[in-house]
Each structure stands twice: as C-alpha cells, then as structure tokens.
Amino acid sequence: MEPKNDIIVALEFGTSSIRGVAGCKKADGNLQILGIEYEDTQESILKGVIYNIDKTTQAIKSIIGRLSEQLGAQIYQAYVGISGQSLHTEANTVKRNLATTVKITPELVDNLKDNNRLTSYPGAEILEVIAQEYIVGKGPTLTPLGVMSDHIEAHFLNIVARTTLRENIEKCMRAADVAIVGEPVIAPLALADALLTGNEKRSGCALVDFGAGTTTVQIYKDNILRHLVVLPLGGNSITGDIMSEYLMESEDAERLKRKHGQAYVATPTEKPKQLAYGDGRAVDENELQDTIGARQEEIIENVKHQLKDYGKILLSGIVCTGGASKMQDMVIAIQHFIQSERSVKNAKSLLTTVDVAPGVNNPVNKNFDGAIAILMQGRVACTRDMGQENAAPELPAAGQDTDPTPADIPSTEQAQPSAAETEENSPAEPKIPKTPWYKRLGKALKDMMEEDTDV
Fold this sequence. Notes:
By secondary structure, the protein is α/β, with parallel strands linked by helices. The chain has helices spanning 53-71, 106-117, 163-175, 187-195, 198-203, 235-246, 250-260, 285-307, 330-338, 369-376, 419-425, 437-454; strands spanning 8-13, 17-25, 31-40, 45-46, 49-50, 74-75, 77-82, 88-103, 124-136, 139-141, 148-162, 179-180, 185-186, 205-210, 215-221, 224-231, 274-277, 281-284, 318-321, 344-346, 354-356, 383-384. The protein is globular.
C-alpha cells in the first residue's frame, strides 16, 4: 500500500455531536473528501461543552476507527475545532507613554501584545488575540509600524473561553490516543474563512450560525473580526418546546419540526390540518406553528441584540448558515424580527470547491461545513500506513535459513568462527628442521669427551 502521506483529518466538536472528516488538498487547490463520520453525543456534550469524558472518548475512538477503515490507513493525529457556549470576545486596551518621540517598532508592538496576553479572566483563558487598531500620532491606524509618536494605544479583541473547554477536549483526545495537531482551531473563525468572501468581510457583515444547541454570531469589518458570541439557544430548543407542549418523544418532535415547521407565519391557516405523529395522535397545524414561532422569535431577538451596535457597518448584511437555518422561511423570519435595512441571505456554499471520492457519502446536506472548514485549515498529514508504529519484524519464509550471516548482525562484534574454520584459517606454526643422525652422534661423542676433561 502507498504511504498515506497527504491525508488531513479534522474533528468538529459540535453542540451535541462530533463530526469527523478526512481529505486531501489537490494540486488545483480544491479539496477532495475521502471519508466522513458522525457520532451523536447528546449524552456527553451539551452546547459544545464536554461533561462526560469517557463517553466522548469512546465517540472519538469510534469515529477515528471507522475513518481509518475507510482510508486503509492509521490516523494518529487530527486537527480539532473548539467552540461551545462559553466562547466569546472581550475588548481590551493596552497603553504606553514613551519618554520621547520615537519610531514605533515591531518589538514595541509585540510587547503590547504580550502585556495584553497577561490579562486575567477568572476561570477562563485567552484562546486567540485579534488586533483591532492602534492609536498613534494623529489618529487610529491598522499598521502602526514606522509611525513617529510618544504614545501608543493598542486595542485588542480577546477570544475567551472557559479553561475546561479546551482541557476536556485534550483529555479526551489523549485517552483516545489521537494527538492534536498544534493548538485547537477556533471553529467559528474557520467557518467564516470558508464561507465569507473577502468583499463581505471588508465591507461589513454578520455571520450567524444557527446550530442544534447554540447560535453563534460573528461580525466582520475591514477584514477583521469585531465581535463573537455563542448564544445558548438553537434548534434543539424548538424541539424541546414541542416535546413539552405535546408530551411526545424527541424523535416525533424533531420529525414534526423538520417536516412541517416554519420559522415565520404571517397569518394562521383558516382551516388548519391535523398533523399526525407517533401512535395515531395529531397536533393542530396552527398550534404547532405558534410553538415554533415563539421560540424562533426569542432566538432571533437574541441575535438582534448582538447586532444592535453594528447595524450601520453591516453593508453586506447578514449571512445565515447551520442546520437550524434550513427551516422554511428562516430568512423571512430574520427580516421580520430584526427589521434591518441590510440584506439577509443563506450562505450558498464553501468558497473552496469540494470533490467527494467515489463511495463516500456526500457531506453537503449533512451539516459538515464546520468540519470541512477545520480541514481546510490543515497543513500537516495525519495518517500513516497501518501498523507502521509498532511493526513486527518480517519473518523468513518456510524452509528458509533463519541463521543470520555476519553481514546481517547489527552488532559491532565480529562473528565467532567455528573450530574447523579456526584450524583451517590459522597461520601455520614454523617447523624446526631435523638434524641428520650422524651429526647428532658426533655431537654426543664430543660432549662426552669434554665432560671427561673437566673431571
């Protein structure tokens, strides 16, 4: 099998689910999806916050295992998106008075950023810092470097979340034996990069992601994030209201909402239908729309509250996305309740062309935009050949000699030769030539005569 050296894997921890996607970036810049997987985590993740480590770990293992099987490769690391109810932005200002008029240097700007990072938020941490503007010289600027001034004032937007939000994700990933590539990706920012055009971000727009458990609002102007908040209301809130009002199971409530629900109804139907569900019971069409409409109005009113200070800069209007935005007449409902002069539209599609490999479920209608957006942030391969980490040594074929030759031995010691090899290869000892017998006899007689003389 060819090494899987170009496959990127991403996991999105949604408000009540985990979505996993694997793909690769093609030479033309497009993205090819090689596998998608989904796990419902309503029993372990609530509004994007993990509260059951064991069940979430098992869900991660399940997704990674099925994706690995689809890919025919081992997934050992992944990009991870972080979101959740506690995610929001906090404005902060750092000022510095200088002794004399000097040129603003990169070192000075970095020092201001470092000081901003020291800002403390009880029980929370800064995940990302986005510079808004700098006040130097005669006024505000986005590029203070090189400006002469004796004073600088830096305005930052800190993206903040509860410390446990990131920590619990990291615990689950470690327990699932899957490494996180770099730092967790801030999922809403990745989604905005994937959906909003440069013109929309520059001229000013709001991206509203209507999810199952939360609704995320982001505001952009001059290509800079100006505001982000995650509201604890979503499509599941409507489902819960239907369940409570009519004492039905969640599956029946969700089915009624998806099939008959309308985000806004101007006038009730004169002859309402009786909508059947479950065990032969039925609900009045107008009553159902009243229940849905009341909660939908609350969600949109909360969005409106987040937009109230930015209405004048939203030249590109409001862009809607997310599973709950697909309810019938959602755009009409937003226009009615927000009463904005700006346009309201659904996000058309991801900016990058996405191809789906043969045999892979199409993610377009399965709310995988967030996971794909995280995948698009990836730069590092996340897979390797199956069994590569702890590969067993290759065994010889049956009948093959298993004794290694001296060249196969990795030790620096030489192989010891056999006794036969020693005798055969040892250098021959020098032989002492034999003296003829008559010379030996003459020498002996001479020695005897010398002994008699000495006596």
